Amino acid sequence: MSPGNASLLIRHGRVIDPGRIDGPADVLVQDGKIAAIGRDLSAPAGIEILDASGKYILPGFVDLHVHLREPGFEYKETIKTGMAAAAAGGFTSICCMPNTNPVNDTRAVTEFILDRAKRPDSVHVFPIGAITKGSEGKELAEYGDLRSAGCVAVSDDGKPVTNSMVMRRALEYARAFDLPVVDHCECKHLSDGGVAHEGLVATELGLQGIPSAAEDVMVARNIELAELTRGRLHLAHVSTAGSVRMLQAAKARGVRVTAEACPHHFTLTEEAIREFNTNAKMNPPLRTRKDVEAIKAALKDGTIDAIATDHAPHAAHEKHQEFEYAPFGIVGLETALGLSLLLVEEGVLTLERMVASLTCGPANAFSLAKGTLAMGADADIAIVDPDAQWIVDPDQFRSKGRNTPFGGWKLKGRVLKTLVSGREVYPSPMSDAEHRV
What we know:
Blueprint: E1 8-17, E2 21-30, E3 33-38, E4 48-51, E5 56-59, E6 61-66, H1 79-88, E7 91-96, H2 107-116, E8 124-127, H3 143-149, E9 154-155, H4 164-175, E10 181-183, H5 188-191, E11 196-197, H6 200-205, E12 209-210, H7 212-229, E13 233-235, H8 241-252, E14 257-261, H9 263-267, H10 289-301, E15 306-307, H11 316-319, H12 336-345, H13 351-358, H14 360-365, E16 381-391, E17 410-420, E18 423-426, H15 432-435
Helix pairs in contact: 2-3, 4-7, 7-8, 8-10
């Protein structure tokens, strides 16, 4: 398929567009849009035909939580390499967090990000602006400017909004622009100095712990403030059973709250940090088996709306330190599908529910016109081989980051092609070496 071609007929695949279709069908793409879906579609004269027999044809995935690191930390990741990693993972739309240098708290930084994202092989990049100026938790950023420049949400991710009045005002102000407020739910007074979940493993390793309560008390506060203000609250990287319980109760009484969970939080437990594995150090930390099961159940019943990666690349030398000093964070764009499919294999999620958690679920949470194969929608498509088995090799990542605890894992299900507005962006027409510049 030509990388510049925006019209083609994809035949004989299993089309899964949650709530619309799940079954064998063809997909006709014309001028970069979904033109038709059905059995045995006629091919317009001269159109390219792609045989997807035995493959899944899915809406391109949507990630609400990605760190592209640019501007300011290009040695960790760039917008270009981050987009390449997204395309390799089947993600056609990614929302990038504002904790760059400078922080994305102004129109100028937002426009810089969007300008850098304009490439022939690009995925859709949706910037997230800062809640407060400099993400210092004091003075609100100018949400109107951020929204008009292209931001789809606001967050001080990596830093919780500690002051409750500032958080209240953020929810009220963001409501005027229909922006979700995304909070990193962590009580720093409870977590200060902690590097792992407060539990048996941290105690045995002599590491200072981060209790589940550090997340739970901030989730409780944020839900109360969202109920008070009628603002749109989004809970980032939910990791505890307590958060799940409060989220369920809040949704039941009509609070405007959505939430995401990360593959590492429904796949791994605190046991993964044994041997002081810094690639398993993230914030919030890996929790207990009870927490993992709660996250799975919440994805199953829809309490948690989306699977997000919290893709957080770091340079190798940063992770190659003593556990206490290594930075929090792992990469996730290129392993998310395989890890999510484990939930289908385990019988936790139906295939359709898993696809929804990667597509329409996150798109709806941020009101993005993505994650669907509806007629007239952008032809953002992931073609997946469900039977492909592969070994996670961080050296083959398109991301600059290699910091994953899943190296050496054998996963099943892999993206074969990713299309953005009908254009092939993975496999990329550019070389791997060029992507890693």
